[in-house]
Hints:
Layout: H1 5-33, E1 36-42, E2 45-51, H2 58-85, H3 108-111, H4 119-132, H5 134-148, E3 153-157, E4 160-167, E5 170-177, E6 193-196, E7 202-205, E8 208-212, E9 221-222, H6 225-241
Helix pairs in contact: 1-2, 2-5, 2-6, 4-6, 5-6
Amino acid sequence: MTSRPQDIQAKLDRASFHLKSLFDAEQDLLLRANPRVELQVTTDGPCYAFRAERVPEIQLGVIVGDVAHSLRCALDYAVCRLARRGGAEADLTRLQFPFGKAGHPLTSHDRKHVRGLSSASIERIEAARTAGGAALDLLRDINNQDKHRLLVAHFFQTDQAGFTVDLAGATGTITGPALDSWKLYKPLDDGDILALGHDERFTPNFGFMLCFAIEGQHGTFRVSVLSEIAPKILEAIDVLLV
């Protein structure tokens, strides 16, 4: 395992490259897929159906995993750098950033990943964990999922929906809980029914986003979540390298 500053920066640069690739791939898919809602008439009456020209490609999930891997490697390298600066004789091939659980001190099991480091270095790692907060937990979970099972992106309905209302010429928008909460955390396929019934005075509004799920966790995460947690990971690395 390397401890050179240039190798840490190389991993961060790689993460930035993958984040840009992820943004471009997401925007390209949204443009080509054209996710939308269509009013359809069936034997059960009028309904609103989800339509999309394309499904998310496997490559999206691969890029998410690439971002997570690069950020994780940068954290590991930073721990090795911390060990070398502190004069520790730890085996760099066994050192890892100990994620633990946000808001909780490292357990004896977590400390196995930093065996041989001084108490001052452990304090620095704890400070880095505080700086990273919940972002570190999410990075750990994404990275673990990516190592054992492919991350797959899907279209999901957002957790808010609304109505455009036109009564006697007055138009307004009402936002509230999603019309069909049972659909929230299920991937949407072309033709899926989002809501039944139709009233000319009330037009439902729907929103969609590209998400992926992590085993053992409720709900979904936007594909773009890596862009949101990356700055917190950088904060944690900065604390390690001070």
